[in-house]
């Protein structure tokens, strides 16, 4: 029987290390790519069916594997925010939840049994220790970071990790807009103010670079509307439950979740 474990690193890297990830107009920004499905008629769960992977030195484990390229796997992410933008109640703080799925039990949808998904409340602080306002965009972006950090995906032998989401902000930000934001020194034109969530975008960029150094590229797959899959629906439900969980379930400081033998 495969043993599983989840370790939460509550003390994030030292401020000096995190601040070294800052992106300035002189930085070499490495963007992720947009995933182009080999068969656009297949829904994500059919394009990346759950398969059992066999690797030397560990028990077999399930992953969502591209049926057209066995070196590519799928991560499903989502986020949800109660009172997003304070539209429902100006005096009540928004509360967000995040989730991601990376495997499941063969024949069972992920997030039904809790064996292949992680859901958590968005932290009260960012990676630099700064207090943050919860939003839906921030929750989904945070879910991507957590999913990419959760395992050394390159160490598992994957050539590409595909992140599935229904949010254009995340997909276009990671594949197109980020380099433009950095060139503009994170300021919008004509005094429009700063671009939001800089701390998380810099953290995501660090994840993309780290995985690329492992020989594993990150791609994003945007699926919306009628094409939205059951997998995303389950991830969304998990994020909503996390957002509505008891306040004691929320961490103050930015954390890193690391899965071992999962």
Automatic annotation (TrEMBL):
PROSITE patterns: RNASE_H_1. This is RNase H type-1 domain-containing protein. Gene3D superfamilies: Ribonuclease H-like superfamily/Ribonuclease H (3.30.420.10). One of its GO terms (molecular function) is nucleic acid binding. It comes from Canariomyces notabilis. Pfam families: RNase_H. Residues 69-244 form the RNase H type-1 domain. InterPro entries: RNaseH-like_sf (IPR012337), RNaseH_domain (IPR002156), RNaseH_sf (IPR036397).
């Amino acid at each position: 029987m495969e043993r599983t474990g989840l370790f939460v690193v509550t003390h994030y890297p030292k401020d000096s290390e995190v601040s070294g990830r800052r992106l300035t107009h002189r930085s070499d920004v490495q963007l992720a790519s947009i995933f182009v499905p080999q068969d656009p008629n297949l829904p994500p769960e059919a394009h990346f069916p759950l398969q059992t992977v066999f690797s030397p030195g560990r028990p077999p484990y399930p992953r969502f594997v591209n049926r057209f390229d066995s070196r590519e796997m799928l991560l499903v992410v989502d986020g949800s925010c109660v009172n997003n933008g304070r539209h429902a109640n100006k005096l009540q703080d928004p509360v967000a939840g995040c989730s991601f799925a990376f495997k499941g039990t063969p024949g069972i949808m992920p997030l039904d049994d809790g064996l292949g998904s992680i859901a958590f409340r968005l932290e009260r602080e960012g990676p630099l220790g700064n207090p943050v306002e919860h939003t839906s965009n921030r929750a989904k972006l945070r879910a991507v970071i957590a999913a990419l950090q959760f395992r050394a995906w390159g160490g598992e032998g994957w050539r590409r990790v595909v992140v599935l989401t229904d949010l254009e902000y995340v997909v276009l930000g990671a594949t197109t807009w980020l380099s433009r934001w950095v060139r503009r020194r994170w300021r919008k034109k004509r005094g429009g103010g700063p671009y939001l969530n800089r701390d998380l975008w810099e953290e995501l960029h660090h994840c993309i670079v780290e995985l690329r150094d492992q020989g594993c590229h990150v791609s994003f797959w945007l699926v919306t509307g009628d094409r939205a899959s059951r997998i995303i629906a389950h991830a969304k439900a998990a994020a909503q439950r996390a957002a509505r969980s008891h306040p004691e379930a929320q961490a103050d400081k930015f954390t890193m979740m690391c899965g071992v033998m999962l």
